[in-house]
Design brief:
The chain is α+β, with helices and mostly antiparallel strands and about 45 residues long. Strands 1-2 form a two-stranded antiparallel ribbon. A hairpin with a 6-residue loop joins strand 1 and strand 2. The chain is elongated. The termini are far apart.
Length: about 45
């Protein structure tokens, strides 16, 4: 068992996710879809 604190910097998360409010599931948005969604604006429920 390791003891002590590891002071290495954390890696950034390469994934963009959001939680669907209707189902409660987490969804990964792929980068090419993310660019399309940003230009389309917010999604209406």
């Amino acid at each position: 068992m390791a003891s002590g604190v590891d002071n290495k910097a954390l890696k950034s998360n390469p994934f963009v996710t959001y939680r669907d409010p209707l189902t409660g599931k987490w969804i990964v948005v792929h980068q090419y879809l993310q660019q399309s969604l940003q230009s389309a604006g917010p999604i209406a429920a």
